[in-house]
Each structure stands twice: as structure tokens, then as C-alpha cells.
């Protein structure tokens, strides 16, 4: 499929890029590839740039966040940048006390567990997003015709950090609030949807060419709870992008049980983890959407031949899709050798 | 269904118990109920009994392990005891250095990550299981006609502790070994199957009336990897029970994608977490097996009416099964109020 003349994106900066074409349902001869969490941990130039700067401070320093976002594009030859940030950044900008504790993750000063805790949450002042807009502007200038993907955490995952107060294996306190107090839950998830929606929208208005919502913890939910108590809020987050026309990408870890519900939340591209082969995922989704994924990160440390065979297998399974953006089934593990990622990009670009 | 006269279990100590009858496909008028992790953390008498004793030391002290196993039967009125232990106990008894670090979980002194690491693993000396047999003997004497369920970790979950060296969110190192070095992987999983199989068998020979294999991490696997690289080893663990005739129960967290593969590993009863309703799980399994579960532990802290309605809904969904043992969809959370568990047992026993 070729976009018709007169389409609002035909003359855009990135509309001819492999990524945007594939996300809009085109099948370019070369398949686009990028990696979730490519900006950060595994790159030595990232560790050098971050030295002496706390994670959230780095996210809010425009020059530094822009530099970290650009690093993997230069080194790996990927077809997109993804905005370097943390899912709690918009929460912090809305005034909630939160820090990233090394080796542990985000820790919230005062966990949000009651109706009165939720009432104390204040809306995100659009002016607070100025450093984000500034960083995205620098990134977009540096990228030229390479697209930037906006990054945001889905309401359920955001809420789970707020309720648990930190990382948790099973989100039990979060799910307990969800089933015990539906009104407080809905208010909390709406707040999360609004802050993450504003965060995504700021990135798009400043020049991002696509927007991806990450729901890291949705796999801990039953289908019924996802459908009734979570999906409407993920939809609300995507709705914040109304009128912007960028492709909306949804990635959820362990989302196999609810893939068919994702088109209705507004997802136009769906990221698939390593648990399901692409053709099985496409069948469950039902709607003919481009898919993103699903190389198993466990292969990144395997002998090259095994990784290459696995990547080619994923690409063959992607052949019949309406569009396929090659990616991992989860973020780049910190110990990954960047040379392996660069070689993987070459392989994807050389394969039909 | 009533067991025919002459059946080898008809005259057994526990063969008329609600649990054993339900696990053999009978539908007693009162439905049996017990709780995964009922022995331990949430009971004050457990914390008192454990005071000053390390976790693994408690597991290997027969009087203490037996007392802890019996406590929830006395307090909660459940229809079965489950043997108090830790999945790394047979690993420790086979000579691997491992400790339980409070708030973190099992930590292995020297993680197992290479062919030579696996070669160094030694078989479990049956004599080392003497404290387990002794504890089970005390429990069985104390239980009378109430059955004891033997407890063991599945090979994949056991291997993941050995490879990661401690708890991990995604079992990435474990899965990397699995895809990188299939021969080392198979040798490691066979070793795990043999130690956990011997551990289960010792409990059954000493008087346990059923045996449950726990695969806490199987939800991190793709269906293909589970089928090819894990299921044969879980089968090997169950095969260690050959000739014992006790019902074999399999519980895997996030097992939705592979439920149909579980009858072939030898599971005769299947535990279902909270992600899928029982009727959907039964449909996927295909074979007419009794199911165990699947009350969502997130409801344990909810107002009683909500928990009661949820428990009744689970029971209604279990009505059409060939057998239903009521349980949680995961272990009892440490902060659970024991009175809520006792009230839940009363509810289950009062419902048709």
C-alpha cells in the first residue's frame, strides 16, 4: 500500500520512513527495526553520559535526555528513536514524591491506597512538561527523517507503582484496591490516564511521529478485570492524542488473554512479547493491525547462529501481517552486547 | 461417583476424605477447601514457632516442620494439610549451598550457569531425606483421617533459582541458558526433576495422600519452549511417584497458554490461578480432570460481602467440573487476616 497524495502525512518529515510506513499498514521492502529500552542501560556511552546524574534528573535535563535518546540511533542503525524517560516522570511532574532507587526501581514517598490519597493527587500543569517538549525538540532536530516514538506508561502500570509504593511481583495491593473500592480505583486510573496522556501528547506535539503506551503489568490481571476495570482507562490515555494522527502503539507484557480487546482501546499497532508467535497473536487480535515484536530477549546472549535463526523465524511469521515492525518481545537487558544489537539490525535490513 | 469396593484406596486412612474423593473425580456434597501457603507467614502461631529459627533450619527440624504443617488445619478447619517446606529444600539436601534471605527469597551461593556447573551437581542421597520422612510421619499421626498434600517445586522453577542465583522477575538468564545450550539445559532439568521427584516420593511414602508440583515461573515461557524444553522434565518429576497411586496435582502460575499440555505430564488434578475462570480453564484442558482453585487472593482484604460473592461465583463455575477443590489462585499473602480464611472455609463448607 502507498499513501495517497494529499494524505496529511505524505509531506511530513518522517512519513516516508520505514517505521511510519509499516505502522500505517504499508509493507516497505526493508522491514523497520528498533528495540524497546534501546536508549539506556546497555550502551557504554549512556553510562558515561549519565555518570553523576540521578535517573529522574537525567530525564528532566533536556540536553541529556535528548543525547541519550539519540545514542542508539547513531550506534545501532535502528529505524526509530524512542524517547528516553521513565514511566513515573509525568507522576513526578504532577507533584508526587518519587525516586528511582538503583537496583530496585521507582519508589513512591507516600503510596496511594485510599480515597483520600487519590483526592490529594493534583492535575498535571501543562507548563511542567516544558523540559519534555524541549528535549523532544532537540531530538527531532537531530533525527532528521528518522522518527521518534513517544513513550508513556499505561494507567494500570502507573497505578501499580503508586499503590505498591515500589516494584512488586504480583501487584497484589493494587489489585486489592481495584476489587475492594471500584470508585477510588476508577478515580486513580483516570488520573493516571490523564497524566500519561498529557505526557504522550507533549512528546507528539513537539515532534514525535508515533506514541507507544507500555503496560508492563497487565499480565497479572484476569481478562474480566482488564476489560472492565483497566481497558477504559488505557483508552482514555490514548484519547489524549485525539487529532494528532500519529500511530498509537500498545505494548503489554503477558497480554495474550486480552489481545482482542486492544483495538477497542485505540491501539493501531500492537506490540507482542515472546510468549506467542506472531501469527497466533494476529489471529487473537482479529483486526488486521500491524504488529511489533517479537524476538525473545533470551536469545541475545546465545550463539549468533541461534539468534539469527530465531530472528528469521520471527520475520517469516511476520510475512503475512498487514505490517511488521521488528523489535524484541521486551526491553533490552542491561547486560546485552551492543554489537549484537547492531548485527541484528543489519540482519533485519538484509532479509526480505 | 462412588469408589467401588475393592479399590485400593477405599480402605485407606484418608480415602473417604473430601479432598481425596474430589481429587479422584467424586463430587462430595461438601466441597473440600485448603489454601496454598496456608502453613506459614500469615499465622501468629507460626511466627511464634519460627522465632529464632532460620527458614531452612525450620524445614529440616521434624518437630517444628510438623507443628507448622498442622497449625492451619487446627485454626482454619481446612480439609487438608500441605507439607511446610521450601522448594529449595531438596536442592540443599543434595549438597547445593543455598539460603533464604528474608524479604528476598532463596539465594544460591554458586549459581549454576554452565555445563561444568551442572556436572558438579550430585544426586540426592535418599538418606538425606530422613528428616522429611520423620516430619511427615509426625504430621500424618496428628492428622488422622485428614489428608496431607506433599509439596515440591517443578523442575523449571527450581532451575530458575539455581541459574539466576536468586529471585528474578523474568527468568532471563534461565531462559538464555535454555535457548543457548539445550544439552546443558536438559541435564540441569533432569537433575531438578530427580531431586524434586525424590522429595515428593519421600513425603508420599511417609504418608502424604496427594502430591502437588508447583511451577511458579512457567508463565514466563512461550508455549513452544514449555512443550519442548520443560514439560518432559515435569513429567519426569511426576514419574518418580510411579506405583504410589496418590493423586498428582499440578499448579502453574500464568499457565493459561499450556493448560492442554498438562494432562500429558501426568497431572490428574490441575490448579488454576485467578487469571482464567474455571469453565474456560476446563475447556482449554480438554480432558475431564478435577480442578483446584481459583479464588483471587486480591479479594482477601476486600469487604467480606465482596469476597463472599467472589467465592460463590468461583464455586458456581466449578459446579460443572468433574471435581472441584476450592483454593486460592496463588499463595496466601503474608498480611492476610487468619479469621478471614477461617470464615471463607465456613462459607465453602456451607455452600452446596
UniProtKB/TrEMBL annotation, chains A, B:
It catalyses: uroporphyrinogen III + 4 H(+) = coproporphyrinogen III + 4 CO2. Its main location: cytoplasm. InterPro entries: UROD/MetE-like_sf, Uroporphyrinogen_deCO2ase_HemE, Uroporphyrinogen_deCOase. The record marks 86 as: Transition state stabilizer. The keyword Disulfide bond does not apply. Residues 32-41, 149-165 form the Uroporphyrinogen decarboxylase (URO-D) domain. Its EC number is 4.1.1.37. Substrate binds at residues 37-41, 86, 161, 216, 330. Gene3D superfamilies: 3.20.20.210. Belongs to the uroporphyrinogen decarboxylase family. Homodimer. This is Uroporphyrinogen decarboxylase.
Amino acid at each position: 500500500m502507498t499513501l495517497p497524495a494529499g494524505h496529511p502525512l505524505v509531506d511530513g518529515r518522517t512519513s516516508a520512513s520505514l517505521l511510519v510506513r509499516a505502522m500505517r499498514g504499508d509493507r516497505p521492502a526493508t522491514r523497520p527495526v528498533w528495540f524497546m529500552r534501546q536508549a539506556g542501560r546497555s550502551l557504554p556511552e549512556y553510562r558515561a553520559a549519565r555518570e553523576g546524574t540521578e535517573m529522574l534528573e537525567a530525564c528532566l535535563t533536556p540536553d541529556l535526555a535528548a543525547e541519550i535518546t539519540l545514542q542508539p540511533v547513531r550506534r545501532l542503525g535502528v529505524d526509530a528513536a524512542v524517547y528516553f524517560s521513565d514511566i513515573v516522570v509525568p507522576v513526578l511532574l504532577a507533584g508526587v514524591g518519587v525516586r528511582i532507587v538503583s537496583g530496585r526501581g521507582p519508589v513512591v514517598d507516600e503510596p496511594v491506597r485510599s480515597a483520600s490519597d487519590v483526592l490529594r493527587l493534583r492535575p498535571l500543569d501543562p507548563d511542567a512538561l516544558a523540559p519534555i517538549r524541549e528535549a523532544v525538540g532537540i531530538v527531532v532536530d537531530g533525527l532528521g527523517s528518522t522518527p521518534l516514538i513517544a513513550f508513556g506508561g499505561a494507567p494500570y502500570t502507573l497505578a501499580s507503582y503508586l499503590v505498591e509504593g515500589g516494584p512488586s511481583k504480583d501487584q497484589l495491593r493494587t489489585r486489592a484496591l481495584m476489587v475492594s473500592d471500584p470508585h477510588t480505583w476508577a478515580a486513580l486510573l483516570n488520573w493516571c490516564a490523564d497524566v500519561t496522556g498529557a505526557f504522550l501528547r507533549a512528546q507528539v506535539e513537539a515532534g514525535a511521529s508515533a506514541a507507544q503506551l507500555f503496560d508492563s503489568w497487565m499480565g497479572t490481571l484476569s481478562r474480566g478485570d482488564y476489560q472492565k476495570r483497566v481497558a477504559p482507562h488505557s483508552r482514555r490515555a490514548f484519547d489524549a492524542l485525539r487529532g494528532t494522527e500519529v500511530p498509537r502503539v500498545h505494548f503489554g507484557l503477558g497480554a495474550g488473554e486480552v489481545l482482542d480487546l486492544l483495538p477497542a482501546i485505540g491501539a493501531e499497532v500492537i506490540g507482542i512479547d515472546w510468549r506467542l508467535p506472531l501469527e497466533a497473536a494476529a489471529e487473537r487480535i482479529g483486526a488486521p493491525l500491524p504488529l511489533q515484536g517479537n524476538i525473545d530477549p533470551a536469545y541475545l546472549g546465545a550463539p549468533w547462529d541461534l539468534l539469527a535463526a530465531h530472528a528469521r523465524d520471527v520475520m517469516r511469521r511476520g510475512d503475512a501481517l498487514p505490517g511488521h515492525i521488528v523489535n524484541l518481545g521486551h526491553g533490552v537487558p542491561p547486560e546485552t552486547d551492543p554489537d549484537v544489537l547492531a548485527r541484528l539490525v543489519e540482519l533485519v535490513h538484509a532479509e526480505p
